[in-house]
Every structure is written in structure tokens, then in C-alpha cells.
């Protein structure tokens, strides 16, 4: 990043999971303006229709810029889904890039209508962790193996984290556990490979479908109240607000690899 500091993200392969809506969708739109021509944007989610709509929007947003946009319809809760994304990524290894950007953004809140002591069913917990933890590790490993360290290639791995990675929220045992595990996973990755630029970014409370679930389904009435007030008083962040801070951090490229940075830290 040193050469192109603070202006763009180079000629990149940029992979965004959970790109069909919410933060991931807005990120795809914002980041497309920061990629140099001939860059490749890989958009992953289960909803093919929404990805196609986004592709059409991006095509007109960056018209003439020659961005290659690939949509991968995949369920990251399944091994086949992760393999499907890997297959698409491996097909791109011949593309000439100077930046690799992987945004592990896809996530789910899980069942927040119950407390920790109701989770007796291992399959339910495993299924949650498969999507929210295992898929992020396996996809990251696969992408990094497909694009190993080489001179002239700057590799960024971003984990979209949460305050819940560091603070327990009652009735959110799955989500808090998953986010804490992911943060540690990416800290280990940063420790193991100093060549990588690894960031866990907590985007703040966003006005997305996930927030709707948080304020309507959380078993904890205090949490429901907090999120309801944030929503009714217009204090939720727009995805664009949060993304501008994330992109500033990436462009400045001065964070300590493996760090957890919150929107409100900046
Ligand atoms: N919203 C907040 O207030 C908030 C706060 C802190 C952190 N975050 C984090 O920010 C990130 C984005 O959240 P958001 O609010 O944008 O969530 P969202 O609106 O619920 O969007 C989630 C995205 O993940 C995808 N997804 C869900 N299940 C999937 C699966 N099994 N396989 C593949 N993709 C899947 C969804 O697409 P499909 O349904 O099409 O698959 C969608 O594109 C998440 O990591 C979240 O934990 C959010």
C-alpha cells in the first residue's frame, strides 16, 4: 500500500462474503470506486437475485472502469459452499494483481430469543459455529494458499467483528462466542504471518436486517430496549458511515496487524 497510500486499493482481487445486503452490499459499492481498472470483485452470498441486482448496480456505478465482477451463490454454512467459493477464487490465480483483499463479512446473529442455558443441542451450536467461525477460517486459509506471499503482492484479511467479540451480551451466547473466536483466530493468523495485514473491524450498530432481528427478537429486554431506542432516535449508523472509517484505516495502512478496531475508536 505504501506506493498508492490513501488514494486507492490498487489492482486488486477483492472478495466480500455476505455481499447481498447490509454492510457487505454497501462495502461492495464503496470499494468498487477505490479499485484500479482490471480489478476483480468476488461477491458471495446465498441470494442469487440480490447478487445479480448488485452486479447490475455496480456495472453502471463503475461503467468504463473495466472491473470484473463475479457472483458466487454459496451457503457458507456448508462445506460445499466454502469449496464453491474456493473454486471460483482458484480460477483467478492467473490474474495480475498487486492487492488481495478478503472481507470475511457474512455472519448471522443466531437464535437470540433464548439464554445460554437453553443450548443443549450440539447440532444447533455446531451448525452456528460452522458458518460463523469455521467457514471464515477455511475460506481465509484457502484464499491465502491460492495467493501465497510474493513480492509485489499486498494481502489484507479483514474480519468484520463486533463489540460482542469483547463484551458479553445476555441472550447472545452464539453471536458473542462466534465473534470472540473469530477475533482470536485472526490474531493467531497475524502472529503467524507478519507478511499479512490482518484487521478485525467492529462496525458499530448498523441500520440493517441484523439490527431488526436484534431489537425484535432478543430475549434480554434491556438489550431490546437499547436497540429500539438507538433505532427510534436515529442513532444507528448507516453502512456508508461505518465503511468510510474502515476504508480510511485500510488506505492509511498503519494499524497493527491482528488488531481489533471499533468504529468508535476512530
Ligand atoms: N448490524 C449491526 O448492527 C452489526 C453490528 C456489529 C457487527 N456487525 C457485523 O457486520 C457484518 C454484516 O452484518 P449486517 O448487519 O450487514 O448483516 P445482514 O444484513 O444480516 O447481512 C448478512 C449477510 O450475510 C449473508 N449470509 C447470511 N447467511 C449466510 C450463509 N449461510 N452463507 C453465505 N452468506 C450468508 C447474507 O446474505 P444471504 O442471506 O443472501 O446469504 C447477507 O449478505 C456481520 O459480520 C455482522 O456480525 C453488524
From TrEMBL:
<dbReference type="InterPro" id="IPR006393">
    <property type="entry name" value="Sepiapterin_red"/>
</dbReference>
<keyword id="KW-0521">NADP</keyword>
<dbReference type="InterPro" id="IPR002347">
    <property type="entry name" value="SDR_fam"/>
</dbReference>
<comment type="similarity">
    <text>Belongs to the sepiapterin reductase family.</text>
</comment>
<dbReference type="GO" id="GO:0005737">
    <property type="term" value="C:cytoplasm"/>
</dbReference>
<keyword id="KW-0560">Oxidoreductase</keyword>
<dbReference type="GO" id="GO:0004757">
    <property type="term" value="F:sepiapterin reductase (NADP+) activity"/>
</dbReference>
<comment type="subunit">
    <text>Homodimer.</text>
</comment>
<dbReference type="GO" id="GO:0006729">
    <property type="term" value="P:tetrahydrobiopterin biosynthetic process"/>
</dbReference>
<dbReference type="InterPro" id="IPR036291">
    <property type="entry name" value="NAD(P)-bd_dom_sf"/>
</dbReference>
<keyword id="KW-0963">Cytoplasm</keyword>
<protein>
    <recommendedName>
        <fullName>Sepiapterin reductase</fullName>
        <ecNumber>1.1.1.153</ecNumber>
    </recommendedName>
</protein>
<dbReference type="InterPro" id="IPR051721">
    <property type="entry name" value="Biopterin_syn/organic_redct"/>
</dbReference>
<dbReference type="Pfam" id="PF00106">
    <property type="entry name" value="adh_short"/>
</dbReference>
